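Regression report. Comparing outputs from two consecutive submissions.

Submission 1:
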Amino acid sequence: MAVIAGVCGVVAVGSIASLVSPTTTLYAPAATAVRPMTQVAAPVPVSRMAAQRQAAYVEAAQAQPVEETIIYQAAAPAQSWAPLAGLLAIPAAVVAFLLNRSNQAKTAAAGVGAAALLSATPALAADVKLGGDSGQLAFVPSSVTISAGESVTWTNNAGFPHNIVFDEDEIPEGVNAAALSHEDYLNAKGDQVSTTFNTPGEYSYYCEPHQGAGMQGKVIVN
């Protein structure tokens, strides 16, 4: 019993010693393993990375010194247009001169043509109506006076048909009565005939259909 009590005392003393001394280790580790910690960066979007790169490029470019070079360029000599304008004015003046000459020639030709036409056309000196406005059978006026080279025109007015016949015994000697007469009947209102008188004297004529009614006329040529 004394032995058992002694053993128990030893065990009790050991237990109290383990409680009093905290630094006492019952088991010693054979080795210590250390696991390193790796820091992982958060993923960055691609668009944000591109913007960051562009900003960094712009910042680096702005940081570079800028060298300014001034370039002087000689001004082109002023052109004088006066000689060229003078040269251009020469053909313009020539064209204007030629056009003026052409217009003058045309005007002269027109004047000559008009004069020739007037000379070829007998001068109208008198106009006689065949039949009065009230229907009378007469030459109106019954007598006209003209100058040599002028003409008389008869216009059919009323009471037609009419004609103009010169009496060969009542005209100047040597004049052809048939050449002066218009024996064909005028059957429509407004029909006209003309005769030119070149020989001075008195010319008597009549309307053949109405000669019995006293339809007679006279032309006096001075």
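Submission 2:
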Amino acid sequence: MQCTTHLTLPKDDTPAEGMNTLAHVMNRFDRTKNITVDTMGESGKTGRNIESEYTVWTSLSDLENGIMLVRGYKDINYTTFSLEQFNQSGKPVFTQINIAKE
């Protein structure tokens, strides 16, 4: 499932305040692991594994300023990326999320 939300800021708000507001809005849509499970097999899967839907990642984008925030399931805070930092990259950039941090 994907949720897309657009936010129009009041005139006095800064882009940072807008991203903060959007982050609060998106927190309302987080699905925690195992909060709802398919114990009756309604998903049609066979086997003994219980299935659960959860929010794997959330991303926020400020296209006007070229900023993207990403938060994986195992993270509390967002990681900020500036699209400018990838401007000179001649190949796709990959950053792992949801991995154990040491």
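Expected: both submissions complete independently.
Actual: both completed, but the second showed a warning that disappeared on reload.
Relevant detail on submission 2: The chain has a mean pLDDT of 81.
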